[in-house]
Amino acid sequence: MTLTARPLLSRLWFNLAPTLPLVLALCAGCKLAAAPQALLARYEFVHPLMGVPFRLVFYAPDTNVAQRAAAAAFDRVRQLNSHLSDYEPDSELSRLSASAGSGRAVRLESDLWGLLRTSHRLYKRSHGAFDITVGPYVDLWKRARRQRELPSRAALERASHAVGCMFLRLDPSRRTAELLRPRMRLDLGGIAKGYAADAALRVLRHHGLRHALVAASGDIVCGDPPPGARGWRIELPDLPVPGSPKPEALLLANRAVSTSGDTEQRLDLDGRRYSHIIDPRSGQALTDHRLVLVVARDATTSDSLATALSVLATTEALRLARATPGVEARLLILGPGSPPAARETPGFPTLPRAQNLQPR
Ligand code: ADP
Ligand code: MG
Question: For atom 24 of ligand 1, which residue has the closest CA?
Answer without folding.
Answer: 130
